Amino acid sequence: VSPINNYGERSAIISINMGSEYNEKALSYLESKNIFTSYRFGMIRISFNIFNNLDDINKLIEALTEFKKAN
């Protein structure tokens, strides 16, 4: 993902911050939906792989949207 102009240093890992009081709850919520991420440096770490596809990404976005609406 970054740095965008240095292809050798790109990564499919992103970290998101839903707010310090929500990150761990969101992690548990994602796990309940069979979406496995990790908790690093106070944020949710999402690591995409060659085995992931667009359906997986849509499932992640849908679950995060549901969580945000409920909290």
How would you describe the overall organization of this protein?
With 71 residues, the protein is α+β, with helices and mostly antiparallel strands. 38% of the residues lie in helices and 17% in strands. β2 (38-40) and β3 form a beta hairpin. The relative contact order is 0.20. The mean pLDDT is 89.
Count of separate DSSP helical elements: 2
Report how far the terminal alpha carbons are from each other.
Answer: 28 Å
Helical content band: 25-40%
State the order of secondary-structure elements, H for helix, E for strand: EHEEH
User: What value does the average pLDDT take?
Assistant: 89
Q: Helix- and strand-based class?
A: alpha+beta
**How many strand elements?**
3
Biggest sheet features: 3 strands, antiparallel
Structural key phrases:
71 residues; alpha+beta; 2 helices; globular
SSE inventory with pairings:
Elements: E1 13-16, H1 23-32, E2 38-40, E3 43-47, H2 54-70
Antiparallel strand pairs: 1-3, 2-3
Précis, in short:
The protein has helices spanning 23-32, 54-70; strands at residues 13-16, 38-40, 43-47.
